[in-house]
Amino acid sequence: MIGQIICFTEKSPTPIEADLIAALTQHGHVPLVDSLHSQKEWFTNNFHLVAHRAYYNHPFPHLLSGQLEEVDFEIMGRPHFIVYYTTTLENANIPDAHQWRCITKYFASILNGDDDETSDEELKVGKESLGAVKVMEPIPLEDDEETEVGPFVIERSLEDYYYKFESKWIKEADLMIYEVKKPFVDRPFTVLIEKFSAKGAGSLFTDLFSCPDWGHEHLDVKFLESLWAHLGLSDDAPFDMEAMLKHATEACYPNESCEVLAEPRVFRKGIAEMEEVYGKKFC
User: Fold this and answer.
1) What would the mean pLDDT of 179-192 be, rounded to a whole number?
2) How far apart are the C-alpha atoms of 251 and 261, rounded to whole Å?
3) Which residues on neighbouring strands pair with residue 84, listed in sequence order?
């Protein structure tokens, strides 16, 4: 019975992430290092059928752990590391509840020194439950189209995990077309902004956020925040989704002249299809 460990990091590991990998390595563990994945779907697809625990360390006061179905990704985000056990013939035994508690206490001890209420026996059970270890360098996951991580993880093409953004300004019509593609979503989201030279890009964010299909998960909001900076809007104002939504909602009601100043317009078609369908209007 050997527990596999995967540490999840940024492309360039932060000091906290680097310290985590170093601590595990110093204690004889051989973690895989994954800087590619942060999508909830990837985690649930790959770990829901195996015995596992997801762990969160700093900046929390204590090491937190749980199964992925117990984790609120919107609040917690990507785990710092995961321990999992496969059920092959060579490795059929998996930890029981007591062993998982000991494993968590063992990690808390070697990472944070939290061993005041942990007995030597619990630390021993925790370490033994992770199986035999050998000191060596961490093994990075390769940036391949198809990468196998243990006998159960098959990754899709990396393109599946990225948000994609395109834009087209039809100058003669003063019309901006923005297209966003979300990971694992079959159809894009396209927003039209008429009188773009006067209105600017602000309604792109509120229109997407107001669309029922868009979603409000942590990564969706983080993408919009990154896009705000990418379009240079952070030079004029900070990203404040709540304030923008309040303003956009008020603009959807008729004013004193009975005019509706803004109404969300999100289409589930790509830029090319929008041009083909609405081409005459754009001219």
Assistant:
1) 86
2) 5
3) 4, 52
